[in-house]
Design a protein that fits this description.
This protein is α+β, with helices and mostly antiparallel strands. The protein has a domain at about 215-280 and about 305-325. About 25% of the residues lie in helices and about 15% in strands. It is built from nine helices and ten strands. The strands form three sheets. Strands 1, 4, 5 and 10 form a four-stranded antiparallel sheet that branches. A three-stranded antiparallel sheet has the order 3-2-9, with no helix packed on it. A hairpin with a 5-residue loop joins β2 and β3 (about 30-40). α1 runs antiparallel to α2 (about 85-90). The protein starts with a strand and ends in a 15-residue tail after the last helix. The model is unreliable at about 215-230 and about 320-325 (pLDDT under 50).
Amino acid sequence: MLLLCSLNAPDHARLGAMTFVHRFGSALNVHIHFHCCVIDGVFSAEGEALRFHPAIVTREVVAKVQAEVRERVLRLFKRRALLSPEAVNAMREWGHEGGFSLNADITVAAWDRVGLERLLCYCTRPIFASKRLHWIEKDQRLVYHLPKPRPDGQTVLYLTPLAFLDKLAVLIPPPRKHRHRYHGVLAPNAPLCQAVTAYAGLPLGDEAVLADQAPVTHEDRSEAGAKMPFYAVSLWAMLIARIYEVLPLVCPQCGGELKIVAFLTETVPIQRILIHIGEPATPPRIDPARAPPDWPNADIDKTAPNESETAEPIPEFEFDQTMSW
């Protein structure tokens, strides 16, 4: 729950936020907390226009949100029997706001796209940084350099490979639980989501026209060439260009723009096309999954085949993945 004070904002105005669920701390420890990127204002639909109402965030507002979150979380834990009534009453009397803290000191200006990217990269960071992990003794001992000293002054962690895996196993998120949550107008099915996306880059005082949310008809498709396409339609092409360094919508012969005619999903037409262009029509053979490594003092199977004999052969063809800018 987030409270934003905005002047002259109607009751139906909605905020927009993204929440990143972190289950880890900087020392490979369990530390469940949230990083929330909240738009400093609310959006309202007035007729056919979208208006943005800037928020006024003060220390008093942040303190009120912190106290309200603490009270609602304690009531929820009590209702679900996660905490006893005695524990809830005791936590209400704790100092330092009962163990709940809220920091809202980081702000990013609307024009600071580099700062916004840096903030989002920090919120989506992985469990640990590989550049801080090194071998002391190969396959025997690891050292992990902490980004900041712990309360006891410790700056590094010395771990065996199994101890390192044990720490990572505890930090793995539960299955089918999203680590990124979208709220308000940024939710995928929010009625104002497309209009808010189109609002990006406009001055704060301007109004954006609400996009039509009606289903697309055959007549609308005929006029699609005159409309600006939605940016998510071409995301797959951007991902392919970034991974394989090939622009899938640019002809490699003349450099002209390619247009999607159809998506083929049937096996026979796909094989005919691959054979016609000189590519293999069958996928390469994949080795079966390997068994876990032998534990210490376990009997070693001397009859196991050589890894080089079961390795996948080098294909006789080569894909051209280069590109010219």
